[in-house]
TrEMBL record:
InterPro entries: PHb_sf, YokE-like_PH. Gene3D superfamilies: Bacterial Pleckstrin homology domain. Signal peptide: none annotated. Pfam families: bPH_3 (PF14470). Residues 56-133 form the YokE-like PH domain. This is YokE-like PH domain-containing protein. It comes from the Bacteria. Transmembrane segments: none annotated. Residues 1-23 are annotated as: Disordered.
Amino acid sequence: MGHPLRPRTTDDHPRRPHPLSARLPRFDETVQYDVIRDTLMPEEQIDGVYASDSAGIALCGITNRRVILLDTAFPGGRAALITAPYSRITTVSYVSAEDEPIFSNTVAIQVGRTFYEVTCRGPEQAAEIHDLITWHLID
């Protein structure tokens, strides 16, 4: 498969469109979409809702104002719905093992000193999460 830090070429990875070009929010299951929808503030819109296979983070919702994470491994056997406004997100990154390509299924979101990992169902979902958050951070 090659070295994970090998630069992308247009043959290996076609250029991705702007993540908001689809206009309709993407989501895996209606119940997950409903969890995020029920937390919306006035004038807030959902960009995407993604299920996660991570040990702790079960759901990642991305809106035009924040990232919403469902942490099912909260201390005491509880779950927490975490809001991370873009102004508090420091970095978004791909996380990969030594034998995986750098553009993997896992995205890490740093809020302050805390990292939250979202393991997606495929590299396309990971790219959407990464790109949506990146667009909001640099826009």
